[in-house]
Fold each of these.
Amino acid sequence: MKQALILIFVMALIAGCKNNEDLDINLKYDENLSLEYDQVIDAYQQLARHYPQAKFIEMGKTDIGKPLHLFMISKNKDFDPASIKRKGKCIIMIINGIHPGEPEGTDASIQFAWDILRNKDEMQKYLDNSVIAIIPVYNIGGALDRSRYYRMNQDGPIYKGRRRNAKNMDLNRDFAKQETKNAQTFAKTFTYLNPDVFIDTHTTNGSDHQYTITLIATMHNKLDREMGLFFKEKMLPDLYKGMTDNSEYDMIPYVMTFNRGDIKSGLITYNDLPLYSTGYTSLFNCYSFMTENLVYKYFPDRVRSVVDFFTQVIDFTSNNAAEIRALKEKADEAVKSQEIFPIEWKLDDSQNEYLVFNGYEYSYIETPITGRRKGFYDHDKPWTDTIPYYTTYKPVTTVARPYAYIIPQAWEEIALKLMNNGVIAYQLKEDAMLEVESYYIDDVTRSQRATQGHYLNNSIKVHKTVQAIQYYKGDYIIKVNQHSNRFIVEMLEPHAPSSYFAWNFFDSILEAHDFYSVWGFESHFLELLDQDENLRTEFDQKKMDDHDFANDPVAQLQYLYQKAPVSEIEKWNRLYPVSRLAKEIELSLY
Ligand SMILES: [Zn+2]
């Protein structure tokens, strides 16, 4: 009996299995089908039961009520991010199904996870230096609603999910403001993992060309300087080369053209603002990618190309784990005392590289139904050419680091949102009059079209003044000495493009405050002029010098209003409520 038990134990060890349950995972991408949501979850549950290196965890709620799952693969069953990092291992985070009509990553991730766990092509070796964390499906609400009529121009799978989530939000615009439970749970998960590498999987339409897979890599200029260099000089070239050498799917940067629609004018790196997944994750010193498969390519090929990309990423990450870890640790530390924060970027079109691109000629036909002239990419006329490639961005707006931001508790929602992203917040223990830098909103344009239920504020013009403001016990103090510094600044500086102000969280401050009429102050102004000799002289002089002014009673009253003590009530007008404490001061906090 004892020998039999030992034999079973040894056999289990050889198989590397937790139990002997036969796996019953039927990936169907070869049949142009993507697994349904329940089948996806079942597949991961089976893998987690079968293999000791796997764990399937519920991370929190999503808008549809179902939990957001995380599937982790780690050697020696170590699933604790802090302990994983102490061992010098990198964490690669993958997220799928933000847009469930673009599901290649969903199926590719199961294939990839399974391949590693069963040690296909000795892939287990990657686990010596890397840990994988997969969000199987992010937009669960959208994934549960499938139709063959979603994304009609896409070559498979037959049934596709809906783009928007249960709250009708596009989750790939919700990474900064986080108004969905999906985004809130994602932020907690991302903060918990603090991964080294992040991959988000998508499908794109637009111009047709010969590539099955394209890649958005976060702007290298936006990363910590040394990380950015490593990314641009080493990681990206290796990944593109790896796809050329080891995959049948050559990869090209995402086709974002220099001149709209004209591929030969060149490609540019995408300006990934923090509202997008890669823009958000890269704020935390993470190498962030978005795969964008081309809709016109057949689904099984798209899935295989993503599996190959995952493999290239884990191969590179494992081979360079020590350098990746060291650079990130250094950057995570350096950002805590970073002094200047760029909040707005512009493409530098004065410098570019070149890349070889395989495209199709653009031609025109007459359509059979309406007879209209229609453009199309002619697959019978392929072309190969060397085109410019622009990857350099310059900061156009920067801000200096304050010691801290102060968020009055009336805006507690903002403090809580920050805290959900790992930001540490303190609160004032007692009331305090503090000298702060405050912003006034001088001008703002409201977008005409709704985005995510918002009419975004853009072209935001501000000016800054120093003044004393009364704060109260319980108001929030956000010190800018944190790993999340860049997120804090991007969200709290009102003129940053993905800020809470841009997303309308502070719009009430743009409305009229205490109403006044300058006519009502006329007798008060007379008193003021009687008491203030200098002001009377100034006022009389201005009337003599300025003919229009002399004939405009409203302008005269406005002028006196601005000079009168009564104008102090103006200090609330378009005052952005989050202030900056420029220098460190003694505060009693809890
Ligand atoms: Zn997408």
Amino acid sequence: MPAGPLVVIAPHPDDEVFGAGGLVAMAAAKGLPVHVLMLTDGGGSHRGCCRADEQEVGRRRRELIAQAAKALGYPADDLHYFGQRDGALPHPGEPGFDELATEMADRIRDIAPATILAPHPLEGWQDHVTAELLARAAIAKLERPVQLIHYCVWFWFSLPLWRGLQLPWRAALTLDIEGVRTRKQAAMNIYLNASAPCGNPWVGRLPQEFLRAFAWQKELYFAADAARMM
Ligand SMILES: [Zn+2]
Ligand SMILES: [Zn+2]
């Protein structure tokens, strides 16, 4: 459990629930401030599915993240939106990367968190990999140290076995979320049950194999410094 305020860096609205909803609910229940940095609005989740307007998809997902915040027990005022385009977070060295990292650092400085959660760098999804690099760049701009922990969203679905075997499992942390399972499930249902006109959820159709991983009573995290030694 973090020793102070918690910041979750979410590339898209829903990552904070699937990857870290149990920890967020437990931290909020202990009275710790929880802030979510939402880098994109997830407007691209119906590309290749239907003709849903991306702005409309993004608007709906931002409504859903506010409802999910309530279900997990932290105020929607503590959601911070950074207005990036889904699927197009700037990579290191590209225009916009350093500006975005600076903007994130400014917000983080105000929150003064004890712990920052960022997606695991081995997640196959590009925005998730880039979000982790942005988190590191933002942390490097801070004047005082903060603990970086990786959370896992697409990890189970996209990680090839050979790579999983190379992971620094000694840096793995499991959190028993039994006591807040119903809260996390309620927050997941907010995303899973709100559908676009095409019939698929606004967050996109999620594979059964992906959803099955979240029936586990635990959440998996990795201490980031150990991960760097891979
Ligand atoms: Zn995501
Ligand atoms: Zn669709």
Amino acid sequence: MTKTALLLDSLRAYLKPRAGEVPARFLDGLDGPLPERDLVPRGLSCLRLLDDCAERTGLPEQPLARALAGGGDELAWGQTYGAGDFGEAFLENYGWMELIGTRGHFASAAIAAGFLLLGPATHYPDHHHAAEEIYIPLTGGTLWSMGGAAPAARHAGEVIHHPSDVSHSMRTGEAPLLALYLWRGGDLAQRSVIGKGR
Ligand SMILES: [Fe+2]
């Protein structure tokens, strides 16, 4: 089995017991055969954080984080922003990898699923997008804010829902963040819009 197929298996195994917490409309697109694309792998500076993140996850999150870390240099990581958006230091501490989606390792037009990495002491400012989103942090300690509300610390395994076009932001403390994301509805390849949404 390829590393990407192992990661897909781990993702499905992690989400299966969470069917009561993650709305079915997000999970439906994960079932069935998903054709694999032959993507060119791409590494990023933030991947240095992966092994540390895999050590810091909650217990149920550990196999998934380890499968991601084990994907090593075969995965295509990306960044939405440039240095002009949030600065160079942000780019050294930020990246995402789309496992499923319109651009991901496994093709789907209905759902996007992937992972976000943020380094310690990193602020990912308010941004929003048309797709509604589920985030499940695999590591705890990050402050999450939605719709301009006061930031709140979220623990590993919590299910966070961001409705369409509602802005959200994250701020890490001493620990890095590894989070699983799911997108549905809207343009699944949309570049997030920086700033306040609705
Ligand atoms: Fe988002």
